[in-house]
Amino acid sequence: MNSARKIEIRHLRYFVAATEHGSFRKAADTLSIQESAISRRIRDMEDLLGASLFQRYSGGVFLTLAGQRFLRQARTALQQIDDGSKEVGAIGRSDEGRIRIGIFSSLASGFLADLLRAYDRDHAGVLIDLIDGNPPEHVAAIRQLRLDVAFITGTSEWSGCETENLWFERVFVVLPVDHPLTAKSRLDWPDLAHESFIVSDGAPGQEIRDYLVQRLAGLGHHPDIHLQYVGRDNMLALVAIGRGLTLTSEATTVVRFPGIVYRPVANEILPFSAVRSPGNDNPACRRLLSLARSMANR
After folding, report:
1. Is pLDDT above 60 for 1?
2. Cα–Cα distance between 94 and 289 in angstroms, integer?
3. What percent of the chain has pLDDT over 70?
């Protein structure tokens, strides 16, 4: 049994080829090797197995009883190897596989939506899992290899991770349609210094709150911010009924919701980056990031 493990894949291919052609010479021609190489390797294999696989005669070879039985096993083994090679090759080419992506931006439009649409067009066999969350949660999952990549705001370096800035989005204020500030085509931070804001308790609520505090504190005013335990759609509904303003990124502004309008904040843009672990070797993810770089450089 231990000696049989020394049989190599090429020996099996030589054996099957000789069987199909009934001749070591013809098999050698088909495989573009020397006839002596096939004869020698098959003889070695017979020695390892302890049984003759072929009867030799002047016109060629034919299988012995042991050879007939071994042929079935050899073909099965080669088929399994070929199937496995194709499957692994498909994963390597990103024809198949799975990517787990942490997102912090809207998929309604913009760079991320375009990226996923283009990737799906070229790699329809790859399953994509999208997970909402805030940057610290995503980075923790990246480090533990529970996520392949996360697209988050900012360009900060995270320990144990690689960060690559890919795109930017403008910052917009969401206002009720009857708010006086809707008369302006764009807003400056002093316009917002005395407004009340609402943010969600989930992502990206904390990041919006920190962003508001950072920008408005410089004006000598601590912003009035109220936490709401609702999702994104209900946040827009709360803005519409006058419970407060909120911020959003450019990608979400294609979403039309009754009772609200969007106004850009002058000279405010958010950088978005891809964060991944250098220890993650998911080929489907590598293809995604390669496409993202290509799109970012257009």
Report:
1. no
2. 12
3. 93
Question: Which residues belong to CATH 1.10.10.10 in the chain?
Answer: 3-92
Q: CATH number for 3-92: choose from 2.30.29.170, 3.30.70.790, 1.25.40.10, 1.10.10.10.
A: 1.10.10.10
pTM of the model: 0.64
Q: Which CATH architecture has domain 97-167+273-296?
A: 3-Layer(aba) Sandwich (3.40)
Find, among 272, 245, 234, the residue nearest to 189 by Cα. 245
